[in-house]
Write a structure and sequence with these properties.
With about 190 residues, this protein is mainly α. The chain is about 70% helix and about 0% strand.
């Protein structure tokens, strides 16, 4: 008889925590999301400002936003966690959260940022370099994915007005590609 296995702890806990944050946000009328899981410029003396630089990736506007991020996250994340290990996956999530949070606060002081899409796009580019045999290779698939993805995000950034942070997607994807090219998988 087959049993269910908790196969990817970082990915599963991230998805569970994001769901709990979404539920608490609904219950609190958005208070929890707005004060703890949404990144925006505020006083540097506010300790929550620094917390939100990391926690904004766990917050989502609504169920549609959550499911669109988690579908890809849950699809790609376990592959990466198996190849790179849990510690490295936590590392990339924290790097993407911090870098996208800081850049967003600096460039868009009057706009809030939330959601895991920067992490998802980091995973997309990271998974495209995961099969590289040595550090002197750049996979053609990664280049094609990067061109299509960055091209789409640039197009969307200039043409659409959809409250989606294309810059966060580009930054996340870039971090994933650089991370994948510089850090070798820790597991086989």
């Amino acid at each position: 008889m087959k049993r269910i296995r908790f196969n990817s702890p970082v990915v599963l806990w991230f998805a569970i925590l994001s769901a709990v944050v979404l539920l608490l946000s609904y219950i609190s009328g958005g208070y929890i999301r707005d004060h703890f899981f949404m990144c925006y410029r505020s006083s540097l003396s506010d300790p929550l400002f620094y917390l939100r630089l990391f926690t904004h990736v766990l917050g989502h506007q609504n169920l549609t936003h959550y499911t669109s991020n988690m579908m890809m996250f849950l699809l790609i994340g376990p592959i990466l966690e198996e190849k790179y290990g849990s510690k490295r996956l936590i590392e990339i999530i924290l790097i993407v959260a911090f870098v996208t949070g800081v850049i967003h606060v600096l460039l868009f002081p009057n706009v809030a940022l939330l959601g895991a899409s920067g992490v998802v796009f980091a995973f997309i580019l990271l998974v495209s370099v995961t099969g590289t045999r040595n550090s002197n290779e750049i996979p053609l698939t990664m280049l094609i994915v990067a061109v299509i993805y960055i091209g789409q995000e640039l197009y969307n950034g200039f043409v659409l007005s959809d409250n989606v942070s294309q810059l966060t997607h580009i930054i996340g994807g870039s971090i994933g590609a650089v991370y994948g090219m510089s850090v070798r998988p820790s597991r086989k």
